[in-house]
Design a protein that fits this description.
By secondary structure, the protein is of the alpha+beta class. It has one domain. Helices cover 30% and strands 46% of the residues. Strands 1-2-3-4-5 form a five-stranded antiparallel β-sheet, covered by helices on one side. Strand 2 and strand 3 form a beta hairpin.
């Protein structure tokens, strides 16, 4: 899978990752491939509830510039922007798991 995220100053950053677990309509997990500029991994669990689908998202990443890159990432995007990205990713995973 190829991932693309918007980095500081709106510059897109891409990296490759592999799916490590896929249970349709329940869970999807991934990790970046060795040697990628953005080291990351995560898991999304889907749970049906009366209001719709609940997502439990856990992610970790190591930005290319270490602590400086992390600080730039935090100042470069709002919380709402990150939530939109998670929602968009969840929709892509939902389509892929069908």
């Amino acid at each position: 899978m190829c991932w693309t995220a918007v980095g500081p100053a709106g510059i897109p950053v891409s990296w490759d990752a592999e799916m490590t677990q896929l249970v349709p309509n329940e869970v999807v997990a991934w990790r970046s491939l060795p040697g990628e500029a953005i080291e990351n991994e995560g898991i999304v669990r889907f749970e049906e509830c009366p209001e719709g689908t609940r997502l439990d998202i856990k992610m970790s990443y190591s930005p290319p510039a270490g602590a400086i890159g992390h600080a730039a990432r935090r100042t470069g995007r709002s919380t709402a922007g990150r939530a939109d990205t998670r929602e968009q990713s969840a929709r892509r995973y939902e389509r892929a798991s069908r």
